[in-house]
Amino acid sequence: MTETGSTTIKPKKFPYRVKFEQRLTEVPRWFPAAVSVGAIVVALLLGAVVIAFAGGDPWRSYAHIARASFGSLGVFSDTLVKATPLILVGLACSVAFRMKLWNIGAEGQFFLGAFGASAVVLAPLLPAETPRWIFIPVMMLAGILAGALWGFIPGILKAKLNVNEIITTLMMNYIAVAWNNYFIFAIWTEGGFQMSPVFPKNAWLPRLADYAIQVPLFRGLTVHLGLIMALLAAVLVWFILYRSRWGYEIRLIGDNPRAAKYAGLNITRNMVLVMMLSGGLAGLAGMSEITGVVHRLQGAISPGYGFTGIIIAWLAKLNPYAVILVSVLFGGLILAGREIQPSGIPRMIQGIILVCLIASDFLIRYRVRIVRVNGEA
Amino acid sequence: MVNENQTEQPKNYVQPIVEMRGIVKRFPGVLANDHVDFELMPGEIHALLGENGAGKSTLMNILAGLYRPDSGTILIHGKPVTFTSPKDAIRSGIGMVHQHFMLVPSQTVTENILLGLDDPRFLLNLNEYHRKIENLGDQYGLKVDPRAKIWQLSVGEQQRVEILKSLYRGAEILIMDEPTAVLAPQEIDDLFKTLRSMLVSGKSVIFISHKLQEVTAIADRISVLRKGKATATSVPLGKTTRQELAQLMVGREVIFQVEKKQQQAGKLVLEVEDLHVDNDKGLPALRGVTLNVRAGEIVGLAGVAGNGQRELAQTIGGMRACTRGKILLNGDPIDNRNPRYSIQHGLGYVPEDRTHTGSSPNLSVTDNVIMKNYYKEPIAHGWVLDATSASHFAEELKTAYDIIVPNVETPVRLLSGGNLQRVILAREISGQPSFLIAVQPTRGLDVGAIEGIQRLLLAQREAGAAVLLISEELEELFSLSDRVYVIYEGRIMGEVHDSNLENVGLMMTGTPLDQIQQKGSPADD
Predict the structure, then answer these.
(1) B316 and B335 in one domain?
(2) What is the CATH number of the domain that holds B515?
């Protein structure tokens, strides 16, 4: 902030100026939520300007987005399908960010999770006729372990050698994609196409539509078991963070590592463990996507879920339950986005919302006042 | 003092180059400068003496344009000035070398010196500037390679770069904030030579320090600050003694006696033997400290901050390794282990830094009080944290230690200093430590809070715990402690049982007790 002038007479000066003051008292509980809602409204208004500028009718576009993602049971189910991996990667990022470990490798851990799950079918670790109740848990475990391994490597490097985890996790994303491609192109390829054979049906996560014969309402609903896994994971993460010894350690180290050291906590061990938990959750997202939606290993399994997870974790303020809410909203935006335009405007609106929400944080920490400019002695 | 509107000067009158009059600067909760006067004559080295927190740096930061005074005037060459930024001060010829250097490590010396200047405007002929800076360095005996990158330089060399930076900007007045704190003895000699060579070319120096030996070695005149007030202004070196200066610096206040029960000290609890420890920069912070604390006594450690107290506390707390020597707690060696090892052997530790080490600001009171027993019954059952018994525990401590807070789920960053200190003490004492180390436990607190904290420490003594109290508040040290060690530059200068402040002042500024006693009555040099 620049200091304004001294007593010396300067020609006409605007008599008021905006002043930012740090808040010294706690804001009421409703305030952060109100600020967030306000930020979204502002973001939508800004988006409306852009849509109008591009020659569209903003209100019809917004109405269309709402209808295309939340308008009926069918589309809402599709929204939830999109939200499922987002919840899991959002949780993965939240856990790591809690400890100020900037894991931006959820994307790679997602791919490794998908790979681990696929390996169970394609290696094959289990024969194709294995019953579903064995197949699914084993694939889950394989996905989680593969993702956790991808988190373990940057974790141990950070803990032992203080290697910057932002760089390692980012770089390992590329390795993960290339690793998957190798298997898709060379080993598990189906007739030369860049994809594996379709998994046997008993390796698919059950969908609501599978029970349409018993419950006609479920016809065409694509929501799969992965959603339940994601919701349970959110509850589990909440429990770990707030009701377990380990979670207490994570929160303490995240808030003040010096105090944690002083209290006798083992910081390096927790770094590794948290990176593994984070990787495991992202790996589970990959497993859920591959067995619930794609049903085969192929190249394009993620439109950047891992990176969206970073945004989601941030918008949810690292709260596991808020991650669910934000993921559903983002799922809707992704789905509706395709309805309007393959790329461009919907992505841009996502971006505007993000910028507004993050900027609005300022209002929680500072108060804006308009003060009279007065001469100081 | 010269009248402000006086136009005709007496014949022999030399105008002060800097005059500061009635400077007042208030920070939240602290009156850092309370109507302080200060003047600097051309061609002198003027020492500004005082303990940490006496307001020396604040006063000089005002002169260097970093802070604005709440009231008071500054005159440079007799003309009143208002500085709104350090740039204004530099334009008036005032340069300051801060305690923490403001250099860009990855850039060269020349680049650092040119940084922020208008010339060169666009094209940079580095060779030309390398030469200029080399010449400037030669002139003042500041040898440093202009092409070297800052990170390759020693601390002493970096300081030279800072001085060069000021000189290059045309500084006539150089403010040195605790310049010797980071230097080796040889480098101190070099620095003193440089400062003297600057006087020859007509510059003036303000030398901020709390070390009497250095001040008497270099200064022409001395001003002393104590708790924001000037206790001596512009005293020529010849007209004072070290004893007087020590007294002016430390003060001589009536020591009020807190109610302290007579009791016999028990068995040895803490034994520190010949402890050598390095500080964060890898320089020795403790050079052979030996001390002990018995059960049922409070032992004080006096000294100006930065003489190794923090490192001593951290080493006992298991947060810092020692290079030599040992620490025994209840007979068990605890040096070079880890914090939890020390805690499990009976250590309670109230760290110096309440907000950065002692507590976790965004976590609740509950989360803060369970910091050291969260993994034990009844707070934890195996892996699960029992939230109910944790908040019961917090409620109990809240009542027992009068922690004033709406509820125990409040984040501790919202607590006042006194309340936060109670949270920390409650946590440490509730662990029933056999040894408690408290570093500056009452700093920055108001009178009522101070009394409460002191009572808690005395209660520990009565309960039979051994307490090591590290403080800069001599008053507090002598009223609470059974005996007091004085530390200076990582060495124990001696142990005293009475409150002979004169001797303590001398010991705090570097004279060992046996030397004082040898000389019989203290004499100056």
Answers:
(1) yes
(2) 3.40.50.300
- Residues B133, B226 within the same domain: yes
CA proximity to B232, closest of B50, B28, B96: B50
Nearest CA in chain B to A1: B85
pLDDT given for residue B524 in this prediction: 44
CB count in 10 Å sphere of residue A16: 10
What predicted TM-score, i.e. pTM, was given to this entire model? 0.75
Q: Which of B390, B406, B432 is the last residue of a domain?
A: B432
Contact A141, A206 (CB under 8 A): no
Tokens at B249, concatenated: 């610096």
Do residues B447 and B427 both lie within one domain? Answer: no
Q: What pLDDT band is residue B393 in, cutting at 50, 70 and 90?
A: very high
From the CA of A22, how many Å to the nearest CA of chain B? 13
Contact B223, B235 (CB under 8 A): yes
Domain boundary among B401, B432, B463: B432
Q: In this structure, what token pair is assigned to residue A243? A: 């009701």
Cα A133 from Cα A139, distance rounded (Å): 10
B59 lies in some domain = yes
Dihedral, CA of residue B480, residue B481, residue B487 and residue B493, to nearest 10:
140
Based on the fold, state whether residues B397 and B322 are members of the same structural domain: no
Category of B228 on φ-ψ map: left (φ > 0), alpha (ψ -120 to 50) or beta: left
- Interface TM-score (ipTM) > 0.85: no
Beta bridge partners of B79: B76
B407 touches chain A (CB under 8 A): no
Average pLDDT estimate for A141-169: 95
Closest of A106, A123, A84, A63 to residue A275, by C-alpha: A106
Residue A12: band (very low, low, confident or very high) from pLDDT cuts 50, 70, 90: low
Of residues B172, B65, B168, B174, the one with CA closest to residue B120: B168
**Enclosing H/E stretch for A21:** strand A16-22
What CATH class has A23-365? mainly alpha
In terms of domains, do B424 and B464 share one? no
Domain that holds residue B259: 254-346+433-525
User: Which of A236, A242, A245, A374 to mutate to probe the B interface, most B CBs <10 Å?
Assistant: A245
Is B230 found in the same domain as B110? yes
CB contact B357 to A (< 8 Å): yes
DSSP class of residue A188 equals S
Residue type, B306: G
Residue pair B437/B348 in contact (Cβ under 8 Å)? The answer is: yes
Strand partners, B272: B291, B327
> Number of structural domains, chain B?
3
DSSP A92-134: HHHHHHHTT-----HHHHHHHHHHHHHHHHHTTSS-TT--HHH
Q: What are B36's strand-pairing partners? A: B23
Q: Is residue B12 part of a domain?
A: no
Closest listed residue to residue B276, CA positions, set B262, B290, B264, B263: B290
Q: Which residues contact A10 (CB under 8 A, 6 or more apart)?
A: none
Note whether B16 and B193 are within 8 A (CB).
no
Interface probe for B, chosen from A9, A99, A100, A256 (most Cβ of B below 10 Å), is A256
B488: phi then psi, degrees, rounded to nearest 5: -145, 125
Instruction: Please report whether residue B186 resides in a domain.
Output: yes
pLDDT at B326: 92
Q: Do B358 and A263 touch (CB under 8 A)?
A: no
Q: Is residue B280, in this structure, part of any structural domain at all?
A: yes
pLDDT tens digits, A328-353: 988 888 887 777 665 667 778 878 88
Which two three-digit tokens encode residue B124? Answer: 């940079």
Sheet holding B466-470, edge to edge: B347-350, B435-439, B466-470, B298-302, B483-488, B491-496
pLDDT interval class at B241 (50, 70, 90):
confident
